[in-house]
Each structure stands twice: as structure tokens, then as C-alpha cells.
From TrEMBL:
One of its GO terms (cellular component) is cytoplasm. The record marks 5, 223 as: Transition state stabilizer. It is found in: Cytoplasm. Gene3D superfamilies: Acetylglutamate kinase-like. Belongs to the acetylglutamate kinase family. ArgB subfamily. This is Acetylglutamate kinase. It catalyses: N-acetyl-L-glutamate + ATP = N-acetyl-L-glutamyl 5-phosphate + ADP. The gene is argB. Its main location: cytoplasm.
Length: 264
């Protein structure tokens, strides 16, 4: 099966989002979509007087921000994506981690930074594989917002790249899983300003070198950490590339134009 994560810069661009959803709806076999929306939450928050605070790519989520992200990710973004997929004939079901008890998380413990209502997912035991599999077997396509719950009545905000990685890992017990991170660039780039500088293969050693050299930074660091975590736990293939490259991954005679992640 294929699990696709779509990032904030595509969600924010109606025409790129629409063409991505057209392609996604054409994918054969069981599939699952995870969306972000951090950029949209920040913009709507600012209209409501809530200033975004990000530390190392993660949002500091106080009680007010938790209400904001629950409305924006679980409501606006999730339902707009599901409605567009329905119009394309892809029968999808919008979900958060609370729905069907799909993903339980624990509030991140207090450290140097208090991330507030940000949730970490412990492992496969936190994912309701039985419920997810029943949804997939019914021919439905789950569309996940980046929200989890704590089992005690509270929603938690969880990075969308992490949601994609933990779902891929859990479903790898039953399916052969390809995980693709789709974003606005052609892949992991050697030079952030040059779309022609895609690094086609990254293993763990190369990743260390790229980090030390400062070539991968910001949001790319948690994305690659999540990519290696998935491969280390049974996911068959992890790809990072532009949203427009999605359908090429099903073509056996085309080499992937983005970045392929491998353990070694
Ligand atoms: N070497 C790199 N190649 C490509 N993008 C990079 C690189 N290093 C850092 N980045 C940044 O990582 C971002 C992708 O991470 P993130 O913002 O979490 O994306 P999204 O949520 O859209 O998937 C890119 O928009 C880019 O600014
Ligand atoms: C805890 C945490 O940081 N959650 C993220 C969830 C959204 C997200 O990951 O969106 P993108 O994929 O578009 O960046 C946030 O609120 O920004």
C-alpha cells in the first residue's frame, strides 16, 4: 500500500493541491493520505490574535493553540481535502487520531521547552491497526489530520511527518508499504536554491554528513528522522519528492526524480 504525506506549501496552493489530489485519486490499491497544514494554522491564528511559536520545527501548543489546530486541521483542511477527493471519485474518510482510536499519544514531557499539548506516539501499540485495516478493507481511503488524542479526553497536536511515519510503520505489519513525503521541491536538494541539485539517494551515513555540512536543516531534519525511523521498522520504501512526481512511483520503467531514502 502507499502512504502519502502532503505538506503545508502544497495545501496552501489551491491549483497545486487540486492537481495533487487528481493524481492521488488515480493511485491503485489501498492508500492513505496524511496532510499537514501548519502554515494555514499560523495564518488563521494570526487573524485571531494567536501568535505562532515554533521550536525546532515543532509548534508550541498552549490551550488556545490546541483549539485553533483542532479546528483548522481536523475541520477546515481535512474536510476540504475529503470533499475534493469525493469529487474525484475517491471515497475517503477524514480522520484524526481520536477517530476509531486510531492513534493515541502522550503529551510531551516537560523539558527545556514546554511544548504544551504536543503529542508523541510511543509505537505500534498506540495505533489501532484493526480499525484502520477494516476501513481499508471496506475500500475507503483514510485522510489523516495531524492530530492525536491522549485517551483521557484531550486532543494533542502531532507533526504530520510523524503521523505518516508511525502509520506506515504500523501498517507495515500487514502490507508492503511505500511512504512518500510530497512537498513543494523536487527532493532533498544539495543547494536549496537550485531545483536541479536533487540528491537522489540518502543513506544514514550520507544523512549525517549532510546535517553536519548544514545542507539539510529546518523541516527537512524531522522529515529525514521520520523517514529512517520508518525504514528501521519495516517500511519497504521511503521517497521524498515534489507532489507532481507522485504518479511516477507506480511506473516501473521510470526512475524516481526525487530522493530515495535507504538504510545503507
Ligand atoms: N536540503 C534541503 N532540501 C530541500 N528542502 C530543505 C533542505 N533543507 C531544508 N529544507 C527545508 O525543508 C522544508 C520541508 O520541510 P517542512 O517545512 O516540514 O515541509 P512540509 O511540511 O511542507 O512537508 C523545505 O520547504 C525547505 O525549506
Ligand atoms: C506539533 C506540531 O508541530 N504539529 C504541526 C502539525 C502540522 C504539520 O505538521 O504541518 P506541515 O506538515 O504542513 O508542517 C504544527 O502544528 O505545525
Amino acid at each position: 500500500m502507499i502512504i502519502v504525506k502532503i505538506g503545508g506549501n502544497i495545501l496552501d496552493n489551491p491549483s497545486r493541491l487540486h492537481s495533487f489530489l487528481v493524481d492521488f485519486s488515480k493511485l491503485q490499491g489501498p492508500k492513505l493520505l496524511v496532510h499537514g497544514g501548519g502554515k494555514i494554522a499560523s495564518a488563521i491564528g494570526q487573524r485571531l490574535g494567536i501568535t505562532p511559536v515554533m521550536v525546532e520545527g515543532r509548534r508550541v501548543t498552549d490551550a488556545e493553540t490546541l483549539e485553533l489546530v483542532t479546528m483548522v486541521y481536523g475541520g477546515l483542511v481535512n474536510k476540504q481535502v475529503v470533499a475534493q477527493l469525493q469529487a474525484l471519485g475517491c471515497n475517503s474518510i477524514g480522520m484524526t487520531g481520536a477517530d476509531a482510536n486510531a492513534i493515541r499519544a502522550t503529551k510531551r514531557p516537560l523539558g527545556a521547552v514546554d511544548y504544551g499539548y504536543a503529542g508523541d506516539v510511543a509505537g505500534n501499540e498506540s495505533i489501532n491497526i484493526t480499525a484502520l485495516d477494516a476501513i481499508l478493507q471496506a475500500g475507503l481511503t483514510p485522510v489523516f489530520a495531524p492530530l492525536t488524542h491522549d485517551g483521557n479526553g484531550s486532543m494533542l497536536n502531532t507533526n504530520a511527518d510523524t503521523i505518516a511515519s508511525v502509520l506506515a510503520t504500523a501498517l507495515a505489519r500487514k502490507y508492503r508499504v511505500t511512504l512518500m513525503y510530497c512537498f513543494e521541491k523536487k527532493g532533498v536538494l544539495a543547494d536549496a536554491d537550485d531545483e536541479g541539485s536533487v540528491i537522489h539517494f540518502i543513506d544514514q551515513q550520507k544523512y549525517k554528513e549532510l546535517k553536519v555540512a548544514g545542507i539539510v536543516s529546518a523541516g527537512m531534519v524531522p522529515k529525514l528522522d521520520n523517514a529512517f525511523a520508518a525504514l528501521n521498522q519495516g517500511v519497504s520504501q521511503v521517497l521524498i519528492g515534489e507532489a507532481e512526481a507522485l504518479l511516477s512511483i507506480e511506473e516501473t520503467d521510470t526512475t524516481f526524480a526525487g530522493t530515495t531514502i535507504s538504510l545503507n
